[in-house]
What does this fold into?
Amino acid sequence: MKRSIGAQPGNNNSGKGRVATQALNKAMALRSGAEPTPMTEGYSILVELWDKQIDMAREGNNGSMQMIVERLEGKAAQSIEIDANLTVKEIHDLTDSELNSIAQGGSD
It folds into this structure.
């Protein structure tokens, strides 16, 4: 059986705090001549960091380009394929040898 594994249903961790994305958007807006708005010190530091990443990306730094794209578009989906045949036994159907193997950390 082959399955793709992702986040558990109901997991919304990716939606928490988009401060870095907001800072990147701000840095990009400032680059385009948009009017700056008041921001906290922590936020302004993030804007400066993203501004440096933009400079590096424009100079051809692939890592900076990838970081910016992944922040704006999200990382490309990755899947893990599992190919397994599982046999399920009730505990009372296991032999003493199988129970000993499990107790010692084995899988058989």
Notes: The radius of gyration is 25 Å. The mean pLDDT is 77. The first helix runs from residue 19 to 31.
